[in-house]
Amino acid sequence: MHTPRVLIWNEYRVERAEPEAAAHYPNGMHETIGQYLRGEGFPVKIATFDEPDHGLTEEALAETDVLIWWGNKTHNLVSDEAVERVCRRVLEGMGLIALHSAHHSKVFKRLMGTSGNIKWRIAAEKERLWVVAPGHPITEGLPEYIELPAEEMFGEHFDIPEPDKLVFVSWFQGGEVFRSGCCFERGRGKIFYFRPGHQTYPTFHNPHVLRTIGNAVRWAAPVDGFAIKHQKHEPLEPLGVM
Amino acid sequence: MHTPRVLIWNEYRVERAEPEAAAHYPNGMHETIGQYLRGEGFPVKIATFDEPDHGLTEEALAETDVLIWWGNKTHNLVSDEAVERVCRRVLEGMGLIALHSAHHSKVFKRLMGTSGNIKWRIAAEKERLWVVAPGHPITEGLPEYIELPAEEMFGEHFDIPEPDKLVFVSWFQGGEVFRSGCCFERGRGKIFYFRPGHQTYPTFHNPHVLRTIGNAVRWAAPVDGFAIKHQKHEPLEPLGVM
Amino acid sequence: MHTPRVLIWNEYRVERAEPEAAAHYPNGMHETIGQYLRGEGFPVKIATFDEPDHGLTEEALAETDVLIWWGNKTHNLVSDEAVERVCRRVLEGMGLIALHSAHHSKVFKRLMGTSGNIKWRIAAEKERLWVVAPGHPITEGLPEYIELPAEEMFGEHFDIPEPDKLVFVSWFQGGEVFRSGCCFERGRGKIFYFRPGHQTYPTFHNPHVLRTIGNAVRWAAPVDGFAIKHQKHEPLEPLGVM
Amino acid sequence: MHTPRVLIWNEYRVERAEPEAAAHYPNGMHETIGQYLRGEGFPVKIATFDEPDHGLTEEALAETDVLIWWGNKTHNLVSDEAVERVCRRVLEGMGLIALHSAHHSKVFKRLMGTSGNIKWRIAAEKERLWVVAPGHPITEGLPEYIELPAEEMFGEHFDIPEPDKLVFVSWFQGGEVFRSGCCFERGRGKIFYFRPGHQTYPTFHNPHVLRTIGNAVRWAAPVDGFAIKHQKHEPLEPLGVM
Questions:
Q1: Closest chain A C-alpha to C9 CA, distance in angstroms
Q2: Does B229 map to a domain?
Q3: Which residues lie below 8 Å from residue D195, measured CB to CB, with a gap of 6+?
Q4: Complex ipTM, two decimals?
């Protein structure tokens, strides 16, 4: 298997509009994440909302093994055509890492079939992401929990299908829990939802958060195999012999 | 919990157009299934494709606890508004039993997030549906397998998310297998996909098939509980104390 | 299906030895739970550690549809023969509700195949059990979370197989989370692990906790069906025709 | 992560006692599988039933990342101490690939908590193992199904817990199906049950079967991470502040 080629899609508006976000991510969250992934040896490209076709052309997607998605304010402005292209590629095998507010992106909701609804609160409170699946490759090299001193709260009920594998559960200071690391498979594609990453906190500078994203890229990389086709099929032998 | 109120939605075209289908189901498949379910004590209503709004109005759905769906030729003619109403009600708790070709209905594909693609062959061949989850309520009173002397073949790969519970696996004479009884949960709603039921075979007269559908109605009935809301949430105590 | 017959197995030592436990449960936790279940219409019998065969005879188990288990100090003193009888009955279809410290009982560990290890702390701290599966019958009639003002903490990693269905996740004041309501199926039998219930707190007087246990009894009741046999099987037709 | 070190445990009796088995596997099935795995770059060691401690010493297991197990006639003669050592290592992270009759080995039954019972028939019939999880790494490079012209039949109901991931479903000529590729996780360890491999057929010479085993070794390799401990835990902050 070749080294997975990563495309980081970032809305890239909040870092330009909000000084608090810009302070942590002067070149955008995609650059912070991208720099780490390049250091891990992955070829990384960037696409953003304001590019033509949001940078999500057939060509760009055809050269992507794992797509990372961060969006928030523009969910409903992403074109249906781009959403269609991304979802089709996931069913064909492209991995998808949906970060933070991506729970409400068109792409994620469509692949889940649910609303993605949550509870939330922005109060710079403490979060602990506990590993509940310690043998899972996404947890490689992590401690028992990742502690983030200040984050936005996301709380249950999180309206998603039962994850194929639950990897992290978050504890929040204010009294909530959240299934914050969730693996799904759709078609040939693997999807990892990872909760943290509000733009006003330095979460994507946390080495454990970065390591989790890198591990998820390796886990979500496509697996070579037969194409899934919708087709009429011939019997093993002429029927009627029984 | 009250007795679940059933709405059987049938495309109801093939029984009027194809003599082979009419021979088995002179009043439509919905009447064959409906008669059994009424005998089991369930209040049953019928809706069909050619009614205004396909019979899937807000009012009709509001009075439905479990919706049974059989469609085939008209999948893409079902209005998006009706699909939207049905999916919303499922997320709110309405049960859904998707029969046979419903794997390609807009409703099922949208709730799954996948293509629903399969292999198929119409060759009147033998099918055996093996129970793989013998403690599951949908299997109550069934033998080890249901044998159907002649059915359409559906084969893997079936493009669905991993079922929350796999209940039946089918064997086909011509050499294929299929995950033919699959439970899913989406929002508060329970979904059961059940494979058999091609219109040119008397499948819905088989007592084990009928019993399975009746069991599935009981299993898929809504559970009373809190509403799932998307909302800002207050902390347990004023934060900042840690 | 008949009304499930319940057998509550309680170690019944801590209530006689510890004044704090006796204060909450003067006649034993089994009587508090049993009284509620009788009020719900279930036939309830009691068995305790100090009875001959721990009250877990073939006869007693043969008349039990759902077994509730609370143990703590005597886990390793329960006879292997009793454990063998209980586990065999679960595989045959008897439901099992494992409460609190039962995570370390021989019966639970043997049915799970794992150590059942946890983190813990006895500090009378606040616990919130959040419902993460709002359509599940065990949550019928419950609010979004059950709050217990003082409980023992159990924390992850909880060494269990991935639950077939995760129903509750607990938040603890001191910073931990726990998968505190977990459904498993083994053979024909359904198993529900439910975390709360340390003897020095009045947890089993909480109406939501009691309702959860009653719901779990209904969910775990056996389903009639074919016996699971290990056997040589005859082919559909003489082989060699292909 | 280093290249996983493989230990192939083979009962190694049937190849010495049965001419039909010896014809296919003159040096034992372990040598046929081992030769393939060495060619894939894995360091491979061999252990057999008749060695002291069955070759399953603490030292041998400490140097093993993935254990492959083939047994049949001697299941109940394997010492409880060896079983205990193997199961403990699996919970600590060692991968386990259980082949064919290993469904009834002490090790597998203990890790599953169920009987492992099946149906069976030795009639040299055709088997097709259909891939139902095409994105899973164990299926890398495989076709839609693996066809074996002659194998022993294993049929449902297979008494195992619901697999964490179902990868293959077998079709048998005589009318049965079987969940023949099943992933489980127990503690930190990954387990893959793979059905085919009766000694009187050349199954382990099939390139797709060998590729599946090689893929499974890569998938089951341990993931570095924190140790799972049973321990008292300190709160985040002194309690009582709420």
A1: 30
A2: no
A3: D100, D129, D154, D168, D170, D178, D180, D181
A4: 0.95
